[in-house]
Amino acid sequence: MANSTSGDSVVDRIVRLISAFPQDVADLRLSELAERAGLPLTTAHRLVGQLAGHGLLETAPGGIVRPGLRLWELVNRASPALALRQAAMPFMEDIQQVLNQNVNLAVLDGWEALFVERLSRRGSVANRAQVAGRMPIHISSAGLALMAHQNRTLQHEYLAQFQDPYGKLVADDVRTLLADTSRQGFAQLKGVVDPDTWGIAVPVLNRRQRAVASLGVVVPLREMRLQALVPALQTAARGIARGLAEA
């Protein structure tokens, strides 16, 4: 695979190009896409043309570029996230019907929680978690529920590199949050992302008692009912785990 003068391969450049689309933005001008990907405009133009020929990107008048349907098709074909979503959806729908609030499903990807599904409806509280969106572990109940139920080696690696860009937390603070989450069996964060909401999440555990996903809700502070929420989430998480095991 040919390399550029900077040493990156064609695959590296393609990944940078496709990854340059920001969350909730489907259309970018070619010039902006090239800038975000750190590529010369001529290189971006050539790669976009090749990817569009395979349906992975689409082009429109005015120099507009957007992800193609072929990309969506390939990502969703036999994806582990698809099996997880299929197992989780009935339980998520039940919880949403009862709470009338946001319900989310996340997996661990690096040092972030990656949200693979979210249910919400009009009138529910603000929820920063978006499908295919990410949040740092330490500011999301989903992330804490996931990391608190990983092996110690991974937890040590995470804490060793931990750095809060805002300087509000240090590794020992996060270590305490993870220990509390592990002991309680659920994670809770009050007003961290939004001052008026409370995030609650429980792990979906495999046979080795490691978290393969987390199931969470975001509710108004005034409606916080841990005694009712946590058992319902834990029951649903066990149901999702059974569905995955049988898939």
TrEMBL record:
InterPro entries in the record: GAF-like_dom_sf, HTH_MetabolicPath_Reg, Tscrpt_reg_IclR_C, Tscrpt_reg_IclR_N, WH-like_DNA-bd_sf, WH_DNA-bd_sf
UniProt signal peptide: none
The GO terms this record gives for MF are:
DNA binding; DNA-binding transcription factor activity
**Residue ranges annotated for the IclR-ED domain, each copy included:** 70-246
Q: Which GO terms describe its biological process?
A: negative regulation of DNA-templated transcription
Q: Does the keyword Secreted apply?
A: no
Q: Which UniProt keywords apply?
A: DNA-binding, Transcription, Transcription regulation
HTH iclR-type domain residues are 8-69
Q: What is this protein called?
A: DNA-binding IclR family transcriptional regulator
Q: Which organism is it from?
A: Pseudarthrobacter niigatensis
Highest classification ranks of the organism: Bacteria, Bacillati, Actinomycetota, Actinomycetes, Micrococcales
